[in-house]
Amino acid sequence: MPVSTAHSSSFSRFNTQSSYSLKQPKLTSKALTFPQYRTFCVKKTNPNSDLSASNDISVVSTASGPIHSSQAIDAGSSMRKPISLWPGMYHSPVTNALWEARSSMFEKSSDETQDSQTELVAKTPSMSRTTIAYKFSSDYILREQYRNPWDEMRMGKLLEDLDALAGTISYKHCRNDDGATRPILLVTASVDRMVLKKPIRVDFDLKISGAVTWVGRSSMEIQLEVTQSTPDSLDPLDSVALVANFTFVARDSKTGKSAPLNQVLPETEHEKLLWREAEERNKMRKQKNAAQKKDVDDRDEDRLNALLAEGRVFCDMPALADRDSILIRDTSHENSLMCQPQQRNIHGRIFGGFLMRKASELAFSNAYAFAGAAPCFIEVDHVDFFKPVDVGNFLRFKSCVLYTELENPMKPLINVEVVAHVTRPELRCSEVSNKFYFTFTVRPEAMKEELRIRNVVPATEEEARRVLERMDAERSQ
């Protein structure tokens, strides 16, 4: 398992959203001893120098031997390096270190890549396992980058790092034993439900660990686990704060068609269980897609009409409408941005983690304005990546409260939808590139003040169908 320690003063950020090109060379070891270290730095360094020097990034090579457990990537040390190694790349304290660990995969020339090994190999989950360590308890500078105004974790930044780590893990799985692979693109397809099991604090150390858990013909699932030990978490199982499942698909870099992937061979009983769970999710995903295509016009009319009934009162007789309800369209918020070169990956596309962070922050703001009190993150319900976002695109994020769940008055749930549109004014067109779904609640201290959370109702059939689709998806999870 590669271990890297990066040092940087820039708050650089990279992500792994849309495409990952795999043109990977054979890793070669430098003249370092025990263990096999490869040093990437701004300038040529003495291989016998201290591996923790401020300009060095130490990566444990895994190309010539089995993967062994070792120390985690230090999230904070990447903030001390004075310059960035990759102009134009988008970095963060964590993703900078991950990118350095991945940089060896791009050293081979295009001629060499044509001769890369094409044979697929089976790999165990342990061969792609990677861990990031956040030393919040001792690293004040790192802690400041992840702290929100309530001294809690900025979930958008954590989502950004999760996406970056998933991309690095996908690279490692697709690399063959000699460090080479076929030239393919890895595309983030979706992110399944992420449920926050306990609050994440910024004054205790945090770890993110993940590995490939399932592989189909041209798709793979990567499971990431966020853990944090606190004085009240005596049981190791209590330290798990969040679990996330990312789905990637492989595309041939020349034809754009699906490309086969290295298979995964689970070894332990836990790895076999994760494989079975991922296989079941994949089957359910296919069934859901088939059902949507087949029955899109055959939805339950009674449910649809029930949702629309109150909305019609708002539209036709607003004076008689329920004062504890509000139309979906009246909860809308929006922001726009130009996609800048500084936010690109090596293929000129915008990092998916950056998009996830921007969507998360807009959803938080929307829930804040809707509830009238600072919300608490509960879960990411789902994320879909439909189309890549390129540098120079005019990107619009549109959010709304899709529905609320008010069964528990002390813990109301606010479900927020964020849709990203790539808008091309010169062509007079706009396309949906991403959809994000988040769930928030209101802080208990705010609920003591008898804060009123309204019911949200659709006014159009299109809105009602979106609500039903999300409710059905929630029930099926």
Automatic annotation (TrEMBL):
Gene3D superfamilies cross-referenced by the UniProt entry:
Hotdog Thioesterase
Keywords tagged on the record: Hydrolase, Repeat, Transit peptide
Instruction: Output the InterPro entries linked to this UniProt entry.
Output: HOTDOG_ACOT (IPR033120), HotDog_dom_sf (IPR029069)
Would you say which domain of life the source belongs to? Eukaryota
Q: Which residues form the HotDog ACOT-type domain?
A: 132-254, 329-446
**Belongs to which family?**
Belongs to the acyl coenzyme A hydrolase family.
Supply the name of the protein.
HotDog ACOT-type domain-containing protein
- Species of provenance: Hibiscus sabdariffa
